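TASK: fixed-backbone design
INPUT:
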């Protein structure tokens, strides 16, 4: 009886703590983002000795609050085995050691809640699932929930400053084996490669993947730029190993949704709201607008405002609806697409 009471008390304390953490770091409502957090330093706990073989396999789902600096500020177990507070504590402790490059909205860091799963297998190994952002998402036509998406392209993509020091794999060189590796590399705002994703090789098992991975992290880029500032972004890249020649590296943009982005030719400035003007209130609004194949804005809404309640949102929307663009093109044909931009209200 005492043991049951002790377990109930522990569960109640855990519930109260997790609720308090959730209240302190609430889910950002209606917060879209241009890219998910990037996992830089994983942390999987050691297999716990207190788990009996009869309990396995066990899966635990954990929600994490990732701050604007990429640190896990709060974590809570939302799905897992009952009456195992030790296991929950172990999962939360390891989660707080994970490091991320933060999520970004128009390339500015933003906080998000993410979710992932740890599975304790019967062979006494631990499997970690992928992180999925659970904040509100505004999707483009070309993206899906749960997939990494970048709704805004930089003004200038990263450029190789210190090239890949690629070495042709010895066995492949000796046997004159060719190969092609495609991958996405994450270049931060300082031009350093911090992560690699979606690596595929048309001739696996010959060392091409290892050669590319080792060389990639030693390279250096001039970072991408957006509105004149260095920003982080993913770069689709292709590496070709052919005829024992020096491997060739080239960015690949074949998976971009459009050949060209919309270009504005009639920019309409918003009218400063009278209410804000009287008290000299300033602020900014982030607008998301759909530019159709004719170059007209058919849908526009404010997704963030620094000072709500002064009319900035409606003024920015009214101006957005009157703007005109050269439409985006896909396969040489005009196409509609979503764009996002920031409107500043300053004196």
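OUTPUT:
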């Amino acid at each position: 009886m005492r043991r049951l009471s002790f377990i109930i008390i522990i569960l109640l304390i855990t519930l109260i703590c997790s609720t308090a953490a959730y209240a302190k770091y609430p889910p950002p409502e209606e917060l879209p983002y241009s890219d998910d957090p990037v996992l830089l330093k994983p942390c999987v706990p050691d297999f716990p000795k207190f788990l009996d073989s009869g309990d396995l396999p066990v899966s635990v789902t954990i929600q994490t609050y990732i701050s604007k600096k990429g640190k896990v500020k709060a974590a809570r177990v939302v799905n897992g085995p009952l009456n195992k507070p030790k296991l929950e504590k172990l999962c939360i402790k390891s989660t707080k050691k994970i490091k991320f490059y933060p999520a970004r909205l128009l390339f500015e860091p933003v906080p998000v809640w993410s979710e992932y799963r740890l599975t304790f297998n019967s062979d006494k190994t631990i499997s970690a699932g992928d992180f999925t952002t659970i904040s509100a998402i505004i999707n483009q036509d070309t993206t899906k929930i749960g997939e990494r998406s970048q709704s805004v392209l930089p003004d200038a993509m990263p450029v190789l400053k210190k090239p890949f020091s690629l070495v042709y794999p010895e066995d492949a060189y000796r046997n004159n084996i060719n190969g092609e590796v495609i991958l996405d590399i994450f270049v931060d705002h300082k031009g350093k490669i911090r992560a690699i994703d979606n690596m595929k090789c048309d001739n696996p098992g010959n060392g091409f993947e290892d050669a590319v991975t080792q060389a990639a992290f030693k390279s250096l880029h001039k970072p991408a730029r957006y509105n004149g500032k260095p920003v982080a972004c993913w770069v689709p890249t292709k590496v070709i190993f052919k005829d024992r020649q020096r491997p060739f590296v080239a960015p690949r943009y074949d998976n971009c949704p459009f050949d060209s982005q919309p270009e504005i030719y009639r920019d309409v400035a918003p009218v400063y709201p009278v209410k804000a003007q009287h008290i000299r209130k300033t602020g900014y609004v982030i607008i998301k607008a759909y530019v159709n194949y004719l170059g007209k804005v058919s849908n526009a809404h404010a997704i963030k405002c620094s000072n709500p309640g002064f009319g900035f949102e409606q003024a920015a929307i009214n101006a957005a609806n009157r703007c005109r663009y050269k439409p985006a093109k896909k396969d040489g044909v005009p196409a509609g697409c979503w764009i996002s931009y920031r409107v500043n209200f300053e004196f």
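COMMENT: The chain has six helices and 24 strands.
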